[in-house]
Specification:
Elements (H helix, E strand, L loop, with lengths): L1 H16 L5 E3 L4 E7 L2 E7 L6 H24 L11 H14 L5
Antiparallel strand pairs: 1-2, 2-3
Helix pairs in contact: 2-3
């Protein structure tokens, strides 16, 4: 449901204003996202706990790793979600690497 909302927001901004939405700021949360069809990556965080630079770095790492691991499936047009379920372990490792170096700030 959330991916549909984010894609709709991105399409609306692109068609009406000719710009891409990169983030949505709420009172206590920040959603940054990027769409590289057919993939949408979204990170939801508390903006006081992590910098945008760190989030953008994490987003790049996630996208790079995902496309490396699943290039074959994506080229064949196979986007059944169950195929990508093992990527959860890769995500856990990426979060540990990106945030283990020092306290999040």
């Amino acid at each position: 449901m959330i991916s549909g909302f984010l894609i709709a927001m991105a399409n609306f901004a692109e068609r009406i204003m000719g710009e891409a939405i990169q983030e949505i700021k709420l009172d206590q949360h920040l959603i940054i996202y990027k769409i590289i069809r057919p993939i949408l990556v979204a990170i939801v965080t508390n903006p006081q706990r992590v910098t945008k630079r760190k989030l953008n770095m994490l987003m790049k790492v996630i996208l790079t790793q995902f496309f490396e691991e699943y290039a074959g499936y994506l080229q064949e047009g196979l986007i059944e979600p169950s195929i990508f379920s093992e990527f959860e372990g890769s995500l856990d490792n990426m979060l540990k690497v990106c945030f283990a170096m020092k306290q999040i700030k």
